[in-house]
TrEMBL record:
SMART domains: HAMP, HATPase_c, HisKA
Occurrences of domain Histidine kinase (ranges): 264-477
Organism whose genome encodes this protein: Streptomyces montanisoli
Protein known as: histidine kinase
CDD domains documented for this protein: HAMP, HATPase, HisKA
UniProt catalytic activity: ATP + protein L-histidine = ADP + protein N-phospho-L-histidine
Topology of the protein relative to the lipid bilayer: Multi-pass membrane protein
Signal peptide: 1-31
KW Membrane (keyword) present: yes
Superkingdom of the source species: Bacteria
EC assignment: 2.7.13.3
Pfam families in UniProt: HAMP, HATPase_c, HisKA
InterPro entries, sorted: HAMP_dom, HATPase_C_sf, HATPase_dom, His_kinase_dom, HisK_dim/P_dom, HisK_dim/P_sf, Sig_transdc_His_kin-like_C, TCS_sensor_his_kinase
SUPFAM superfamilies listed in its UniProt record: ATPase domain of HSP90 chaperone/DNA topoisomerase II/histidine kinase (SSF55874), HAMP domain-like (SSF158472), Homodimeric domain of signal transducing histidine kinase (SSF47384)
Length: 478
């Protein structure tokens, strides 16, 4: 499982981002301050050393001969070393590119690049370097000719001294910067939490309102203050909620009108259809007796079949209307499941076409009429769509407080695009069966009857082929 490297909560992201920016700003400021302070400390030490060395050289150089010998240079270095005082520098002097002469042997360590540059320089030069891991500063001071400040006299005075006191000052700066960065980061974390809380409070209210709306409370609104982007989002949410509420109310009104229209039409059609069904029954009898011409008998048989189909559709519409109106009620009784299944098959003369597997003595408290409707719809569907010579099986068993009745056929099964909608109203398994005997309401009525019993009706395709409908209902202890 891949781990998240960054926090995924908006609050955590805001806090982390704010802290990182604060830490980066603090570190950048500390780094710039450190570099400037270090350069200032070292520059001040360098300028002070050059000034002091120049003052000593200016006071001692006039006593030197025009062409000083090595002994003269050594005496100058001795006097300069003594004048160093607390600075504790070590000096040497060179004349016209000769080797530096110091008061003691060995002399001070001088960078070769500084000596090479000092040979032709007319101004003081300085270079920082390390000697045995310790920081030092080397100064080369060309001595100019009297009266001619831009002309070198050939004499160069060198001095080196330790920068360890300055290094300690720089180290103190680093420690102070580190110590100051931690409180800044901690304070930024606190400020980030407060800012995130204030910034996300409207977002939290918006999320809570959206969750409330998801439960169906379309009248939910949020209080909006301010004129920023979050406030605009809140106003947009309120507008969306108002539109959804209005659309939902309009849809509910249209749905109620449609249901009322279907119920009214079904009720109005029921009486004339009952009369038509009675008449077509008599006509069917006359057509079967052979007393009518073949063309007339065929036409009357067609009218009788369509009338019966229309009567069944009206009955289904009225049943659906009762479910929609919440008027459907259960009339339960303690019944034997096997006997109920056999009666359902016998009433429709399906005994020889359906295999029944129900345990003896399996009883449940159900509404027998409604379960008969469920079984009739499932078995009728299986016989119509199960294949040329379909074999349908019914299996019932009780376990874990549930009664399960399974209806299976050996046909091609239910197409994948139809399966999720098989219990929708006016859905038919075969789009080409526009004139099939079903109304498209049978499975919807079966599902409603299952829900009325507190159970479920599930459709699936068996791995070996064929459709499987599973009716599951609560069942008490056997």
């Amino acid at each position: 499982m891949r781990r998240r490297l960054l926090p995924h909560g908006l609050r955590a992201r805001l806090v982390v981002t704010f802290v990182l920016l604060s830490a980066l700003s603090a570190l950048t400021t500390a780094a710039l301050t450190f570099h400037q302070a270090r350069d200032a400390i070292l520059g001040r030490a360098q300028d002070s050393a050059v000034h002091d060395l120049r003052a000593q050289v200016d006071s001692l150089a006039p006593d030197l001969p025009a062409h000083p010998a090595a002994s003269d240079l050594r005496n100058l270095a001795v006097q300069l070393d003594r004048a160093g005082g607390a600075r504790d520098w070590r000096t040497a002097a060179a004349y016209r590119g000769g080797p530096p002469t110091a008061a003691h042997t060995p002399g001070p360590v001088l960078p070769a690049s500084l000596r090479a540059s000092a040979a032709s320089a007319t101004m003081a030069l300085a270079q920082r370097f390390h000697d045995q891991g310790r920081p030092r500063l080397a100064i080369a001071l060309p001595v100019t000719s009297a009266g001619r400040p831009s002309t070198s006299s050939g004499l160069v005075v060198y001095a080196t001294f330790s920068l360890e006191p300055q290094q300690q000052d720089v180290a103190s700066l680093i420690a102070a910067a580190r110590a100051g960065a931690l409180p800044v980061v901690a304070a930024s974390a606190v400020l980030a939490l407060l800012a995130a809380r204030r910034f996300l409070r409207p977002v939290s209210r918006l999320r809570a309102a959206a969750e409330t709306m998801a439960t169906g409370a379309l009248s939910t609104r949020i209080d909006v203050t301010g004129h920023d982007e979050i406030a605009e989002l809140g106003r947009t949410f309120n507008t969306m909620a108002a539109t959804l509420q209005a659309d939902a109310a309009a849809l509910r009104g249209m749905e109620a009108k449609a249901r009322r229209f279907a119920a009214d039409v079904s009720h109005e059609l029921r009486t004339p259809l009952a009369a038509m069904t009675a008449v077509t029954g008599i006509v069917d009898h006359d057509a079967a007796s052979g007393r009518l011409a073949p063309e007339t008998a065929e036409a009357l048989a067609l009218v009788a079949g369509e009338t019966r189909k229309l009567a069944r559709m009206v009955e289904d519409l009225m049943e659906i209307s009762r479910f929609d109106a919440g008027a459907a009620r259960l009339n339960t009784d303690e019944i034997d499941i096997g006997e109920l299944v056999r009666k359902t098959l016998a009433l429709r003369q399906w005994q020889g076409r359906v295999d029944v597997d129900t345990p003896e003595g399996l009883r449940a408290r159900l509404d027998p009429r409604r379960i008969d409707v469920v079984l009739a719809n499932l078995v009728g569907n299986a016989l119509r769509h199960g294949g040329p010579q379909p074999r349908v099986s019914i299996h019932a068993h009780a376990s874990s407080g549930a009664l399960t009745i399974t209806v299976r056929d050996d046909g091609p099964g239910i197409r994948g695009e139809v399966l999720p909608h098989v219990f929708d109203r006016f859905t038919k398994g075969d789009g080409a069966r526009t004139r099939s005997g079903g109304s498209g309401l049978g499975l919807a009525i079966a599902a409603e009857n299952a829900r009325l019993h507190g159970g479920t009706l599930i459709a699936a395709n068996a791995p070996e082929g064929g459709a499987v409908f599973t009716l599951t209902m609560p069942h008490g202890p056997e």
